[in-house]
TrEMBL record:
This is DMT family transporter. The chain crosses the membrane at residues 9-30, 36-54, 66-86, 92-115, 127-146, 152-170, 182-204, 216-239, 246-265, 271-288. PANTHER family: AMINO-ACID METABOLITE EFFLUX PUMP-RELATED (PTHR32322:SF9), INNER MEMBRANE TRANSPORTER (PTHR32322). Keywords: Membrane, Transmembrane, Transmembrane helix. The keyword Signal does not apply. It is found in: Membrane. Its main location: membrane.
Length: 298
């Protein structure tokens, strides 16, 4: 475990903030951009942002074809497919229901990491923490969101679930790639995703036919710079430092960010069950991340 545990939590919080507002930004951006085009703009803007930072730090993208195959795989599983599925799904389901479904990722990560990542074995303490956190998410979102399950929106719900599985698989793959500077890995992944998706989006969506408004344009640019570019850098850094199971806790923090923003910025009621839910989420995180102290032999 890193000696700078506080820094790991600061990274996780910053990523939670960047991704916590993503659903709102996507909802606004969809007013002008089709889902695939929205994702393509996110990837291109994020890639440009990280490339400038990478070159400023004196780093270069690798010339090895094997690395670009890895970048393409990471981009497809961790960006192109889940970003597109979530953007499309938000056309048909509420953000609260999407929050419930996204909270399934930690369970997937825990199971996958148990088999494919060293020192990520499932323990009773970790399992109890994950379950408690998931219960907190369900209470936070509220039972009324469950009324949207099934019906005409079933495909959108399955799309969000598939996106969570993509994120889980991608976090395992990221942990297992050879050593490389995290900024180079993040930049290369977004560049590969941009090259793959942009021509497809232009061909399928033909976005030039849609009117572009200031609000959606600003939203998609913020998504690209913050929620895609800088957030991808932080994502790789967290996985490298703490592993996929620690990263998966973000799916419990994001609903907290959404709740806080709703109360402070939108004036939404702060019901008692929401505070109870927040307590359950924080307790779940604490239980899952606490490790037994081992005796140290000189």
């Amino acid at each position: 475990m890193s000696t700078h545990r506080w820094f790991d939590w600061a990274l996780l919080l910053s990523l939670s903030l960047a991704w916590g507002f993503t659903f709102v930004l996507i909802s606004v951006a969809l007013q002008s951009f089709p889902p695939m085009t929205l994702v393509a703009i996110r990837l291109v803007t994020g890639a440009l942002t990280l490339y400038v930072i990478m070159r400023w730090q004196g780093l270069r993208l690798p010339n090895d074809l094997a690395w670009w195959r890895r970048f393409a795989t990471l981009a497809a599983i961790g960006n192109i497919v889940p970003f597109t599925l979530i953007s499309w799904g938000e056309l048909y389901i509420s953000s609260s229901l999407a929050g419930i479904l996204m909270a399934l990722m930690p369970i997937s990560v825990m199971i996958l990491a148990h088999f494919f990542v060293a020192n990520e074995r499932i323990t009773l303490r970790k399992a109890a923490g994950f379950v408690l956190g998931l219960v907190g998410v369900l209470v936070l979102v509220g039972a009324e969101a469950l009324t949207g399950l099934g019906g005409m929106a079933v495909l959108a719900q399955l799309a969000i679930v598939a996106a969570t599985l993509c994120y889980a698989v991608n976090s395992i793959i990221t942990k297992r790639i050879p050593a490389i500077h995290v900024l180079v890995a993040a930049t290369g992944t977004l560049v590969a995703g941009s090259v793959i998706l942009t021509p497809i989006a232009l061909w399928i969506d033909q976005p030039w036919q849609n009117p572009v408004y200031a609000g959606p344009l600003a939203s998609v640019l913020v998504l690209g710079v913050l929620s895609t570019g800088l957030a991808t850098w932080v994502y790789f850094l967290i996985v490298a430092r703490r592993g996929p199971s620690f990263l998966s806790m973000i799916n419990y923090i994001i609903p907290v960010v959404a709740f806080t923003a709703g109360v402070w910025l939108l004036g939404e009621p702060a019901a008692l069950q929401k505070f109870i839910a927040l307590g359950a989420i924080f307790a779940g995180i604490a239980i899952a991340q606490t490790r037994r102290r081992r005796a140290v032999t000189p």
